User: Fold these one by one.
Assistant:
Number 1:
Amino acid sequence: MGEEPIGLDSAVIDALAGVTTATLTTVLLKKGLRNVWLRGAMPLGPVDHGRKIGRAFTLRFVPAREDLATPASWGSPISTRAAIEAMPAGCIAVVDAMGVTDAGIFGDILCARMNKRGVAALVTDGVIRDLPGVLGTDLPVWCRGTAAPSSVTGLTFVAWQQPIGCGGVAVFPNDVVVADADGAVLIPAALLDEVIEAAVEQERLEGWIMTQVDEGRPLPGLYPPNDENKARYEAWCHAQKG
């Protein structure tokens, strides 16, 4: 319907698999991006699905309008059902539900189909319905919670693969989303390579700092490191490579 989805290189997924969303927010902050954490999108259920990485496949709802938001609309060419059939394997479905918490955007059948298509995760600022069934599909979900009423009680589905706002964050199709226990973070597609490079290095540095904390060293001058500790860190990196 909108922009064509593109895949994500396995090397990118492997690199980001070792980077927390907390680290990503810090790296993006250093690049001037403060609004990248999708508010309200938190892990659903007791199962820890680990860290999920994928290109954003976007879906957009607007407020419910009685002549459009009806059960009959579920069979329309412009529907969540049609959007799911356009989702490529490995994508993360990012859904703008306007933060509405009294209308479940997806239930167990739709989530089961997404899982069957190989969708990596569902991320939304709204809620889902049919909680036991959704958990049974094994589709990783980040959302605000659950509600029994269907989507059309409060929302009208209008488009997919177009720019959206999710949790107060501007998400464009094929941006990269990373989701873990702290929530979901957006990486603009154009910044992906430089963010990965900086984030991998930040994780390496913080890993070394943690070893120093474990040894009893005080934080001033260590986190962030002063010139002396930078030199110690660089010597450690050199030794690791050797």
Note: The CA atoms of residues 209 and 225 lie 8 Å apart.
Number 2:
Amino acid sequence: MTAIDLNCDMGEGCGNDAELMMLISSANIACGFHAGDEETMRATVKLAADNGVAVGAHPSYPDRQNFGRNEMELPLSEIKAVVTEQVLKLQSICDEFGVPLTHVKPHGALYNRSARDTSVASAIAEAVHEINPEIILFGLAGSYSITEAERLGLRTTSEVFADRTYQPDGSLTPRSQSNALIADERTAVAQVLQMVLNGTVTAVNGTAVPVRADTICIHGDGEHAVEFARAMNDALRSRDISIKPIE
């Protein structure tokens, strides 16, 4: 592997977007349903364009109160509708700046539900496909998010996480558990290198789980997001792996 994408969730009001944007290759921009508004969306799209970073939509459940991290039981038609509304909102802003909308990555609880629920994964994929079948869908590596999108003919990007721990089935450890987040920089870097170079991740029970790593996520709201992003850059580039958007 000579290149990999490094993505980050942006426009969420964390105050570190400008620093992070210089260290990543793809930005997933909040579309107002869990964070952000049209003003922050415009500012983040411009910031991404100024730094040569690919722009993607980061749609969520309509749940600003809980930052989109609580699961909601919505009809599939409504899930499709809220994803469509958010992606089109960011698409219109991208059009204002003459910037392509390259990808969609669901946020939080919607992302996790899509990973394990074929119906939700299909509803999201259908929404994206109807907007533009050329848009790439980011999803958890090895999950229904990927297989359902590919079934519809969408291009997909298998995502892995620098700052989250994994279960033996390849799913992310729920945030409700105390060991869900990785706070130590060395541990995060070691996990990324294992996933990128070896194609495996060590689950919380110590087993090595096969994983495909096309893009690495760093959460912009993480306490050490900038430090993690800088360390990932240094570790990858020192091994002659460049950081660039998915093509």
Note: The chain has one domain: 3-243.
Number 3:
Amino acid sequence: MRDRIQAVLRQLAQTPEVEARWLNTLSLMEFIGARKISRTVADRHPTLEVLGHLADETRHAFTFKNLACTVAGGEVTDLLCATEAATWFQSLDRGLAEWATSLTGTSDVYLQYLLTTAVVERRAMVLYPLYKAASRNAVVREELGRVVVEEQSHRRTLEDACLARLAAVGATLEPALAMEERLFEPFLGALEAHVASLSAASAA
């Protein structure tokens, strides 16, 4: 799957219009993550750790939106495979919530938050460095470097907490990662097809 991700990112980065739409999609996914945090573990005044994570995700949504507008030279409203992107995130969040409940016998919102964060950040740590290498835009590469550093920082803390909670009930993160890979496949397939179509239309 890594090779496929790398190939489609290289392809979309060749055309500024397509890359701008991709950046707008990344903004959408970060925004979905921020909204998910604010509606669950941050529905009331949260801990410093959760508030920091919420601030990071919101800032990343802004950063990617700003980059999209910079690359496009104006406001960007179009996205790449927005439905598939949202479906991946929402289906993963629901699936992990159900799995967590089956492990603990109760609805543990904080464990669900930890699981979704750990698994989504694992995907981001594949996606963002590959995109940084693929982009021809120096500003995009510079900002992605900053985003990766921030993602790595809270990923370690939250993933360690997640692994500790899972170990307490005799579980590991592997089933969750397998679920994410299965759910990411339709999004990746749609992205490959759409980018190929856009590239062909641009070359015609």
Note: The two ends are 29 Å apart (CA to CA).
Number 4:
Amino acid sequence: MTRTHPPRTGAPGRAVVNGSSPAPMLPPPRRRRRPALLALAVAMVVLGALGAAYLATSLGRTTPVIAVAREVPWGQQITAADLVEARVSAHPALDPIPYGDRDQVIGMVAATTLTRGSLLTRAALTAQPLPPPGQQLVGVGVSAVQLPTTSLRPGDDVLLVPVTGSGAAGAPGTAGTSGPVEATVVRSGPPGTDGLRVVDVLVDAADGPDVAARAAAGLVAIVVVAGE
């Protein structure tokens, strides 16, 4: 009876079959290198790094612009103390005035009430001083009972109502009286030692003299009307 022996093994990686010399094992297949894909990957990494660097640089770049240091009421002239430098990043939605134009801004008039901390734009300014053509600026002195307790702000629309010496409103069309006059508040001063508060208002030029005469006699009451 013939015995079958298992094949002998030689050096690692070689097999001996039936006493023959060990057969060499085939090396593993080599992977193909694709230079185009490798170059594309490198290029994408480089472009990503450059994009991140550009974005960081753009976000960190700021320019000096003009900001409002304190509230400036509508109709008031801009002074140097009203302006302060601020640095902001460029943005298409923002159009502030460069700080280098500061001297051009001083002396202009606020076209709206400028709030503290806001960036100053050209649209918020006007070169037209008060009063504008066709209007007159009149100071109206009123007591506490001749105006609302609510603070008057620049730009408020009001009616100047004539009153008689006893405090009653005058009827339109009577001798020496006229009807209510539309006006716009420019500034409201603090109460004086006599208890009167002077309110600067803009009125039509045709109404200016009559309003001034009645205001000097203390015969005007102020009524605030609803804005549009």
Note: Residues 54 and 64 are 21 Å apart (CA to CA).
